[in-house]
Amino acid sequence: MRENRLRTLWRQDQAAVNGWLAIPNSFAAEVMAHQGWDTLTIDLQHGVIDYQAMVTMLQAISTTPTVPLVRVPWLEPGIVMKALDAGAYGVIAPMVNTREDAQKLVAYTHYAPMGTRSFGPVRALLYGGADYPSEANRTIVAFAMIETAQALDNLDSILSVEGLDAIYIGPSDLSLALGCKPTFDDVEPKVAQAIDHIIDRAKAHGVAAGIHNGRPDVALARINKGFRFVTVSSDARILAAGSQELLGAMRRGS
C-alpha cells in the first residue's frame, strides 16, 4: 500500500506542515500539492467544496507525494466512509466532544473487526494499491477535533480511545466556547492555557496533536511546544494575500 508519509514523519518525531484547501478546483489543488506541502486537507465543513469536487482534488493531489486529508462536515458515517473510499488518507472530524464521539470516529474509519467501515474502496484501491483492504486500518489517520468546552472536560477520556491517532485544535471555535474572540494565532490567555493543557495531555496519551494557524511564526512556536501537525493558511487566504501584496506594490509605485 502507498505509504502514509504523515505516519512516517510522526515516527521520526517530526511535524507535518499542512495546507488547507477551500477552493473547489482540481487545478488549484494540483498547484498547491506541487509546492511541497507534507499534507493537504480538503475542507468539506467550511469550504465551498462538494463531494464531486473533492474527488477531482484528491486525484490532483495524487500526482505528488503530498498526503491527502479531508475534513468532513460532521461526524457522520456516510461522509467519513465516502471520503476514505475516494482516497483520503486521513479524516479530520469536527466537534468531537465525548469518548463516545471518538469511538464512533475510530469505528467509521476502520474495517472490522476494529471498526464498522463498510467495504467499497472504489478509488482508494487505485490510490493506495491492491493491498489496501488489508493495510488500510494501519495506514489511515483519524483526527478528532477538540474545539469545545465539553471536549476539554472530556479530554482524557477522548484521548484514551484505542485507535484514535490524533487530535486537531480549532482555535477559533475553542475561543468562542471559552467566551473569547475567535482567532487562530493571537489567542486570549484563557485559550492559550487551554491549548497548552491539550498538548500536554495529548503527549501523555501518546496521541499526535495538530492545530490550525494563520501565520508561520505561530506555527513554528507551536511545533516547539510539541505539535506535530500544523496548518498554515489556506489556498484562498494565500491567493488573497498574494494579490494584496502585488497590488499594494503597484499602487505604492504609481
Query: How confident is the prediction overall: mean pLDDT?
Result: 97
Total count of strands: 8
Strand order of the largest sheet: 1-2-3-4-5-6-7-8
Sequence of secondary-structure elements: HEHEHEHEHHHEHHEHHEHEH
Give the distance, in angstroms, between the N- and C-terminal Cα atoms: 56 Å
Q: Sheet bearing the most strands, described?
A: 8 strands, parallel, barrel
Q: Helix segment count? A: 13
Description of the molecule:
This protein is an alpha/beta fold and 254 residues long. The protein has one domain (5-253): Phosphoenolpyruvate-binding domains (TIM Barrel). 48% of the residues lie in helices and 17% in strands. The protein contains 13 helices and eight strands. It has helices at 5-11, 26-33, 51-61, 77-85, 99-108, 124-128, 132-139, 149-153, 155-159, 171-177, 189-205, 216-225, 235-253; strands at residues 16-21, 39-43, 67-71, 90-93, 141-146, 166-169, 208-213, 229-234. It has an eight-stranded parallel barrel with strand order 1-2-3-4-5-6-7-8, surrounded by eight helices. Helix 2 packs parallel to helix 3 (51-61). The termini are far apart. 42% of the residues are buried. The mean pLDDT is 97.
Record keyword descriptors for this entry.
254 residues, alpha/beta, TIM Barrel, 8-stranded parallel barrel, 17% strand
Question: How do you describe this structure in short?
Answer:
The chain has 254 residues and is an alpha/beta fold.
Topology diagram in text:
Elements: H1 5-11, E1 16-21, H2 26-33, E2 39-43, H3 51-61, E3 67-71, H4 77-85, E4 90-93, H5 99-108, H6 124-128, H7 132-139, E5 141-146, H8 149-153, H9 155-159, E6 166-169, H10 171-177, H11 189-205, E7 208-213, H12 216-225, E8 229-234, H13 235-253
Helix pairs in contact: 2-3
